[in-house]
Amino acid sequence: MAQILKHQTSLNEEYERKRINGTPFFKMGFILIAIAIIGVTLVFVSDLSFIISLIIGVILFIMGILGAIIFIIGMLGEWASSKSSFLKGAEGEKIVSDILETYPDNWYIFNDMRIGTAQIDHIVICPKGVYTIETKNYKGTIYGNAEDRYWTQVIESEYVEDRPYKFYNPIEQGKKHSFELSKYLSKYGYKSVIHTIVVFTTKSKLKVFSHKVPVIQTNEIYNYFDKQNYTLSQTDTESIVNCILKSIPEN
Question: What pTM was computed for the model?
């Protein structure tokens, strides 16, 4: 198994920070509804006058409606959290990390690495070279060209009109990440070529053109690395790994 030297943390932390927690709303809504139901039941079996029963009944009815609204707010909050881009991004990076982990133990994987100004999804150091991987967990059809500033995601649905969503060219992101890593390693005397890869999960259908930087899906990762040549000795591999380890802050 490959050695995972750093796990993804920033997306999970950002998700938890911005997560809409529906649990308190669930509890409050449930309590109000329960009080309303029990109260109405007691009013019906009591000997209170009509006017008093009516007043109490109206109050309990309003409490029940309020409880139902609060309960629905909790449901919507949890639904919104489940759609978080941070959560989806973390899921995509976990898929790629799990695939990379199946490689031999002389492969080293850094996930969610901060190098210079770059937040790199994955760094792979292995006998076949040094790689940065930009991961995208998008569904739908992806249209793009390596030279375009923005790419387009289109989600087809028979119920909703197709709405294209523009996002920054991931090839440009990946190249900037590779540049930052190359600049960092050069400070320690390493001039290794940094290979850039863009990986989309299999939720997406790719209609992109890129001559130099491979844009692949998760089910193509094995095939991609199988085709690469061996370029690094074990000594060089471990030296580069040690350099990158220095960039991880001590807790």
Answer: 0.72
